[in-house]
Amino acid sequence: MTKTTLAATTLAVVAAAGTGGAANRSGSMRWYRRLRKPFYVPPSYVFPIAWTLLYVDIAASSAAAIDNARATQQPGRTRSHIAALATNLVLNAGWSWLFFRQHRLGVSAVSAALLTASSADLVRRFGASRLPGRALLPYPLWCAFATAMSAHIWHLNRG
Hints:
This protein is mainly alpha-helical. The chain has seven helices and no strands.
């Protein structure tokens, strides 16, 4: 992968992470602590570790897949990868705003499901049997877990 592509995907991922992180202000965290949560929700310190590793993975895997498409001179596939990544990062950042800032538990559960589907689509696009796709596989798995948590939190806190 080229340094230029890696820099571009890293900037995009950092922008999404920063935008999503801005939704987690202190008042939101107090609200989150008061929610009823299922027993399998990890401790709070797990989330920044997991997401940092995932964001590094997203940036590197995306850069490799985009450069692979460019190397095979497939501009349509290159544009498609970039658009899919951009959509995924918007969904990624948007979930935090729906959940933490707007407290829209049901909508955020649906958003998490869309993020899971988008993440699985990235794995498919990047080639599940090739390194970029295989390397990205933890992302949709984590998103599926997050979807289950979001839906369960919504269920426990309705009404």
